[in-house]
Amino acid sequence: MTGARGRLSGVLLGLALLVPVAASVGVWQWQATELRSAEESRDEDREALNAATRQTLAWASVDYREADEYVATVEDGATGDFLKQFQESEDALRELLESNRSVQVPTIPEGGAGLLERNGDEARVLIAMDATVTNKSTKTPQPRQYRLQVTLVQSDGEWLTSGLEFIDAQT
Predict the structure, then answer these.
(1) Residue 75 and residue 61: Cα distance in Å, rounded?
(2) Are strands 122-134 and 142-155 parallel, antiparallel or unpaired?
(3) Pairing between β-strand 62-63 and β-strand 158-166 as defined by DSSP bridges
(4) Which of 31, 69, 111, 135 has the highest Cβ tally under 10 A?
């Protein structure tokens, strides 16, 4: 009887040790999965924010002497309503840039762009941008400040601007 009792005690002791080890492995795997998911989400957030920053700078970097390049760059990063509106206004925009001899040099200060939200393949970013503007009616570069909300959608793994709205900083 002692031998059977000893074996039973050994089996129970083994189970008592195995259950916490198995539970620990399960918790570790769950945490690793959660960490990977959080890192992937953070990477997607960063990609959307970087795309909004890059595309907003492209949209705001105006030089009447390089209108073709400007239009192509903006259209490459655009989609949906934003692309449609930009294309519909392209001829008038080119004429305005040329007749005013407009040049705008934008900058986004450190911390000047922030992700408002990202839900799957859509994101909204708030951007505070400074710019200097010269044209034929200014004797010196004129400072400008813009606050923009940029809406992006992910298409074929690339974040594209689908909307751009000016935000009134006074409200």
Answers:
(1) 13
(2) antiparallel
(3) unpaired
(4) 135
- 138: tokens are 């200014």
Helices 80-88 and 90-100, interaxial angle, to 10°? 60
Specify the amino acid at residue 103: V
Antiparallel, parallel or unpaired: β 142-155 and 113-119:
unpaired
Which two three-digit tokens encode residue 72?
A: 């192509």
SS3 state of residue 121: coil
| Token pair belonging to 3 | 């031998």
| Distance in Å from the first CA to the final CA of the chain | 86
Residues 169 and 147 sit within 8 Å (Cβ to Cβ): yes
d(CA 73, CA 77): 7
- List pLDDT tens digits, range 7-40: 777 777 777 777 777 777 777 777 766 667 667 7
Cα gap 104→106, rounded to integer Å? 6
Q: What is the pTM of this model?
A: 0.77
